Amino acid sequence: MKKVLLMLALVSPLAACGGGDKKAPTTPKAGGGSGASMNDTGDPQFTGGGSGANGAGGGSGASAFGGSDPMAGQDAPVVFPNLDPDPTQAKAQVDQHLSVARAALSSPTPDADTALREAKEALKIDATSIDAAAYYAFAYYHKKQYDTAELVLDDVFKRDTAKKNAGIYYVYGLVYDHTNRPEQAVLAFKKAVELNPNFASALTNLGVHQLQNKQYVEAQQTYERLTKEFNRTDAITLTDLGSAYRGHSADYPAGSGDRNTLIQSSEQAYRRAIQANPNYGPAYFDLAMLYLDADPFPSGGGALDTMQRLNAAKDFLDKYKNAPGVDMKLYDERMKDVSKAVKREEKRRKKGGKTP
Hints:
The protein is mainly α. It folds into 2 domains: 39-56 and 86-213, Serine Threonine Protein Phosphatase 5, Tetratricopeptide repeat, CATH 1.25.40; 215-356, Tetratricopeptide repeat domain (Serine Threonine Protein Phosphatase 5, Tetratricopeptide repeat), CATH 1.25.40.10. Helix content is 58%, strand content 5%. It has 14 helices and 4 strands. The chain has helices spanning 2-11, 87-106, 112-125, 130-142, 146-156, 166-178, 182-195, 200-212, 216-228, 235-249, 257-276, 281-293, 306-321, 328-350; strands at 63-69, 74-80, 298-299, 302-303.
């Protein structure tokens, strides 16, 4: 409790209102405004697109007052020192601290302590900086102190400028995800993207939720933006793009042109993912499921032979088995499905059925 109280004492300058009256939690609501790894936090670039950051100080220059000098027997100007920091210089200092914080959290092993220290230094210079407050909360998120991060966000969110800051909503989304509140996480990520359409990390997390919610059309649009506009061609993003195409294909009847196009696009995305990272197991698994489920499977203007399709599914499942991080229980379950399908096809052929 003492730790939380001390933290709040540090953050209290961020609040625009006094803390005397107790109000309902001010968290973003609807209209007020993640095999991908949920919560892409590799691009913590908050600024741009409605950041709402303010410069420090606000002084209007030196103050001069007329005063009487009895020794001279005439009025002499008395010039008081200007204690207000130069806004341009203060902003540069804040940006410098936030640049260090951003680099600390962007590293392969995020350095939350460094980011926290730099965010505090930025707030000492400009207690009104919403971007600094966002990094302050983001650092606590990386320390896995989700309650503390949310307390910081709730305090800052009382200010109107925070409601226009994409970074605030982004960190809210991450906290909601890790505290099992997916509906609120979706709203937060949506608002972050609305405020800053170029916020790639927020867009990535939104795409993961769209896939989980089977919003395949929306997920397709999201991942196409990520791969084409932001050049995110890593195995995870490409695998999710393939899954979006695959899910969308189910909206069309078997054999239709739209369905065939989406199945082929899905296969291409999965294969690109494997090229990007030959050790990424989920791409092999999802490609196996595509061959297992897509019947008929478009190939060369016609349909792939059923046994060839099932053997392809088996081959990709075996590659998934040999990939790092394999889930053997999942492998065994799906391999049973493939084996049953192969036996059915063999039995059908023995009875003289035509091969599709």
